[in-house]
Amino acid sequence: MCGIVGYLGPKGAYDILIQGLKRLEYRGYDSAGVAIVDGDGKLHVHKSRGKVANLEQVANAGCTAGSLGIAHTRWATHGEPNDVNAHPHVSQSGMIALVHNGTIENYAVLKKVLKDHGYEFKSETDTEVLVQLIEYIKLTSSCSLPEAVRQALLQVEGAYAIAVVEQNDPDTMIVARKSSPLVIGVGEDEVFIASDATPFVGYTDKVIYLQDNEIGVIRRNQPLQLISLHNNEPSAISIQKLQLSLAQLEKGGYDTFMLKEIFEQPSTLRDCLRGRIVDDCTRVVLSGVELNKERFMNAERITLVACGTSWHAALIGKRLIQDFCQIPVEVEYASEFRYGNPVLNNKDIVISISQSGETADTLAAIQLAREKGAFVYGICNVVGASIPRNTDSGTYIHVGPEIGVASTKAFTGQVTVLTLLALSIGQLRGTVDKETLHNILSALDKMPEIIKEALNVDPEVKKLSRVFSYAHNFLYLGRGYNYPTALEGALKLKEISYIHAEGYPAAEMKHGPIALIDHEMPSVIIAPSDSLYDKIISNVQQVKSRGGAVVAIVSRGNTAMTDIADFCIEIPEVPECLTPIVASIPLQLLAYYIAVNKGKNVDQPRNLAKSVTVE
Ligand code: AGP
């Protein structure tokens, strides 16, 4: 949800910023812009609607001269995605330029005050208000830029990660954050800033995660200074080592990041499982549970909060925890939970699930849960993101950077960690028997190979995808563990192909959606050999008798569906609770190829962003 990047050092800033923006483009691609302060102190600002590639067309040579700059890639919130609303925004005098990720909630009030003082606004954005406010404070109080930024931020309500530069000062950049992420990369004689660490990879592995309400004052050839927003006192600097490689940020020979990420799943699941299944598959070790045994022993209820794909993983998590831990579980959309006046106490555990660790609704939900006394556990992919830093404990899924906007490897990683978590709590509470534990852990241990085998359906699914060029609607049906898999399959299709797709519990279909079925409405049925297999067969027959085409995802060797469904895609057989992980593979591929056949940009689908840091 908007990406910001900045550079101060001996090199030309422009190329570094453009490369950084390209790595951050997953956060939004409605517009892009750059502001460079050249060696003579002249400010050059260029911005353009659309992707970073468009910006490159309009930026001129002046930009390449400076070694201080800030840049932005936008996911529009306030104002339509056009050149004027693109960042950087510049103050009335043209002296100060600012990029911002977040939302200034009280911008209308501040704008009115500034207008009363004669300020005029070019854009419809909340961000322009902030840069004008900084200038107004600087001019009226004759203070330094860092102090003007600090005083302005004290008046701001909302979320922000900002970077600010000033004409006539090619040696200073100011950054600050509250609720939106900001990372500082520290090189030998250069400093990088960005919404995440990907723009620094290849330059430095030393990073500082700026804390909420902290301001960073970055000056050429001087030590970095961090100060507290509220008391203007210096804060301690903690430098961490970044574990990211360039190869993880490249397509590695695939046409798209999404396809790469689908095919990476054997290795990402290996990384996710590493060191967590021990003693010949008889025991699971999750340090987050081991360190908080009492909390898990005494838990009376678990609530899972998440958004989108992570919410689908949470639905599977509910079933896993109920089956193996016998604890009541609720699943909530984070956006509903945060305003739903949840009743929680210190016997409650709230588990948040988030790939990015930056989703605003999920972050707000866990903050509320903590205020109400619940123990908050985070399941996250991005190391050091806001959600893991705001939870009591947690587990990383360790699937590496997910760059395609449509989540694939993060989903299978989340379900894998939820399985380990449920088994770990069950092991602790004595609610899972040794044989079940061993069977599931043995199968999980083999999951990388099983997924590799599942990926062999790729050519078959690619061919099948062409059959559905006629379809404007799809129904995805599943039961039990695979009802959430159906929801996830439908979400994948709609977000990258823009085809309407509805996920539904297969047996509920007869209560309404069956009215939609005709020869133009294909159904995808997730029907591995599980405890509800016979039941789902009759649901499929109901679809077939209304003329709808059926694609069934079935366990290898199970032929009962062959005569009923139009197309069967086989997946390796695994214990029932692991079927969502394996069944997701053909669903990801089907959505992928249907979208590619339609010529869509699968990595950057319209209107979406990878990291949703606004409400
Ligand atoms: C997944 O394909 C989506 N792009 C989206 O639903 C995503 O899962 C959701 O925004 C939550 O993100 P998070 O996991 O980073 O919190």
If you had to describe this structure to a student in words, what would you say it looks like?
The chain is 35% helix and 23% strand. It is of the alpha/beta class and 615 residues long. 57% of the residues are buried. Bound molecules: 2-deoxy-2-amino glucitol-6-phosphate (AGP).
List keywords for this structure.
20 helices, binds 2-deoxy-2-amino glucitol-6-phosphate, alpha/beta
What are the SSEs and their pairings?
Layout: E1 3-8, H1 13-24, E2 31-37, E3 43-49, H2 52-58, E4 68-74, E5 89-90, E6 96-104, H3 107-116, H4 127-141, H5 145-154, E7 158-166, E8 169-178, E9 183-186, E10 191-194, E11 206-209, E12 214-219, E13 225-228, E14 240-241, H6 257-263, H7 265-273, E15 277-278, E16 283-284, H8 287-290, H9 293-298, E17 301-306, H10 308-325, E18 329-333, H11 334-337, E19 348-354, H12 360-371, E20 375-380, H13 386-389, E21 393-396, H14 409-429, H15 434-445, H16 447-454, H17 458-467, E22 473-478, H18 483-497, E23 500-505, E24 523-527, H19 533-544, E25 550-555, E26 567-571, H20 579-597
Parallel strand pairs: 17-18, 17-19, 19-20, 20-21, 22-23, 22-24, 24-25, 25-26
Antiparallel strand pairs: 1-4, 1-10, 2-3, 2-4, 5-6, 6-7, 7-8, 8-12, 9-10, 9-11, 11-14, 12-13, 15-16
The chain binds 2-deoxy-2-amino glucitol-6-phosphate.
